[in-house]
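Q: Here's a chain of 992 amino acids. Please give me its 3D structure as tokens.
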Amino acid sequence: MARVPSVIGGFLQLQVSAQNSLQCIELGSPAWFEWLEDECNRSFSFKDGTVSYTARRERQRNGWYWYAYRKQSGKLRKVYLGKSPELSAERLLQVATRLVESKEEQVSPVPDEHHEPVGRTIEHDTEFLMAHLTPLLGREKELQTLCALLRRPSVRLLTLAGMGGIGKTRLAIQLVSRLREEYPDGAYFIPLSTITDGVQVILAIADVLGLRDVGAEPFLEYLARSLEKKRLLLLLDNFEQVITAAPLLVELLARCPYLKVVVTSRMVLRVRGEYEFLVQALAVPTDEQLHDIEHVLTYGAVALFVQRARAVKVDFALTPENLPAVVAICRRLEGVPLALELAAARCKLLSPQALLARLSGHHRIPHGTTDAILPYQQTLHLLSRPAQDLPERQQTLRNTLDWSYNLLTEREQRLFRLLSLFAGGGSLEMIEQVYRAIDATTSILDDITSLVDKSLLYLIEQDDFEPRFSMLEIVREYGLERLHETGEIAVTQRMFAYYWLDFTLSAEAHMTDEQLHWLNRLKMEHKNIRAALLWFASQKDWEHALQMATALTWFWWAKGYLGEGRRVLEWLLSSCEQVTPHTRAKALLAAGTLSGLQGEYRHAETLCLEALSFFVSHGDRRDHANALWMLGHMSIMKSDYPRAQAYLHEAHGLFEELHHIWGVASTLERLASLERDRGDYGRARELAEQSVALFQQLSAPWGLARAFWILGLILFSLGDFAFASVQLEHCLKQAQLVGDRNTLIFAQALSGCIQMFQGEVQAGEERVRMGKQTAREVGNKRGIVWTVTILGLGAVLQGDYQRARELFEESLSVLAQLSFEYKIFTALGLRGLAMVIASQGHALWAARLAGAAASIQQTIGAPVTPPMVEAVIERFLLQARLQVGEETFLQAYAEGCAMQPAQALIANDAQLRQPAVSTPKEAVAHTALTTREIEVLRLLALGLTSPQIAEKLVISVLTVNTHVRSIYSKLGVSSRSAATRYAIEHKLFKLS
């Protein structure tokens, strides 16, 4: 069905094809009025935030007119819109407001063409309010808030504050326009941009009101006497440069009880009775909202960019191809309206993709390092546009910022320049410490307050930390330009960088005893630390750059920045010259640790062994133990259990000698993993519980997350799903508290796997997919293997063997990138693929795959598949045996035992010669039953009635019947006898 035309975000959206292709027409454009005049077009819907109505075209005595309809309180309300040429964006919004705010049903009459204005003026018959040629976009919520605020009797002076170019004037004019009918004596716009003397403000007001004949009376007295009984609304624009006139404004308001004043200013007035409203940037969509063009256009930043781009390029349209670039531009410019307008003007020559590339031009770091280090970006030179109808200060963004900067005192300017170094903002204490290194004699508290008041700095409240002060990125870039111009850049950047070096070294020193606090602080200061690290590198101060990067290893690991950390460390190691051997060895271990956590075991082992050699020869016992721990972990992943045991036992001894409880607990957790892989689940559980106890003693949430995870895996391997789920929930809670995305991957995957085997396949799959997405974001290949393999098992449980095959092949392709060194999952992946290949009738290929997996299992010397998974796989392989016969199957199986994984994956020569035979879904149906459903099925097969089953299991009859229906559905049966026969055939109970 064709959709109703809708006005959303300043555009009329039309469906132009059955495939839901949309055409967007800008409000106020010739195409908009042409559409309105077309008699075929009789209605459209209007939507703006929470406001909506239906517009219909109706014939009246004097021609065609538009009316707005909205159902309210059970009644259909109707309000006059006007003739087609009158339907501007402002008119549509005005009517929307009337429909929402008015309480009584009302039908406005068709006015005469020469109707009189609603308001009265003092000496004029016209009101001085600027008309705009384009609609105001993305401000409806602010307008509603401001309207409600200004209607309050106590609000007499309202200041709209914000940085230059944020849209204060445009918003204020729309506000006054919307309320003008509520002020019978008029609403007036008083521009102050050309006035520099505060005394002239009163003269400017009087001039606009037409009050010029003063005589000998003081002007303020004359103005107050003239306005004392008038119900007026005044809009004073650009008040920041005449801020000294604020007391005169207060006096005028005190003398005129019915007068209200709206002020736009880059700084608040700080006078009695002032109500402040900070005008923020326009909203920008998030990553999750990029799939829907219609939804993205409801965001003010995108709508404004598209509107202004069409002004210079009439065929500009938002498409699936340019949508990500347009949204990225809006994010880069942080939704600042003036910046968006100036950038959109460049669309006349540049595509959004090309414009984004220029706005985000990176200073590239050698050796291919990408955005891991904060880029140096130049934006201001692009954001300029010769526009004769704009004030000079707004023709470029730099002019706008110059205007604000020149209003600052010399001390404020100096502080502003320093603050531009803070890439991610900073607390007052941090800013004071950096500033004190440059000038220890000056207090900055008043100056910071002034910068906040002047909208160049924003205060961000935080729950667990002290408030932070931050700049918009465009403002910060301007400050950096000024810092370069003054010649202060060298000394200030040096002080800034050394502050953050000390900060990261302190964080590393406290990572085992105040872990959560420091991990969160490092997360908060990530951008600042990046900027400092880049500065050390740019100065070729490799020693301090490597020290700083090495100190961040815990943070990169715990927070899931594995790729960033590894790229930075490897770039620094390949670039550095003349660093101390100890610093280099620690950096090698850090790079090896992050590589190993990503699954790159061969490369990681090389780095860690080189580092270990240094630590042993120089007697550095703590880093010696750390290197042994990492080598032990990688040996487990490669299923080299004897070597893993040797490394971990030595590490455990060193940590105990050093009384390093964190190291002891971490080593116990790895030893538990080792014993689980070997199949000694009892010993594994004992070690894991010891690890949990030690981490609880330390109150270390990150360590607890990993210890709970391995305990949950051990319990899963034992078949204790209930207790395993409890441990995994503990793990998820601790990992989320820390922000440990790596542990979240595996906890989500295993929790989802348990849900699948308990019959909640879809819910389990969703949880595993969450883990897979996190693994991709982090770059954890082992996590990708885990999640994709488990999703393959889920597809088998649902009987979707083709999707299962694709998933197992995807898992094995990632394992191939890791040279099949992750042996446990290589074997599991091969067996999983063998299972689904068998289900598709390719028995010989399945046998070879199973043989290759068996060869790996024999090499490992330990089980690779949990019992409940093994039972499912064996059932499919039994079908393959029956299909080709035992002797033929065993011959192919023996061939597979002699193959490497890569060979077995292509050993499908028999595939084309075999008929495809599907294994019945019932072969695995009962594995989808929950534990409770299996209990009910057993009692059902023994002949118990529903009430008897309810009594035996202490549940209600209704619950029993619900379980029975679920059992029938999962087994594909429709009667008690069929369910009983299934239970007997699959030996789900023993007949006594």
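Q: Can you summarize the key feature?
A: The chain is about 55% helix and 10% strand.
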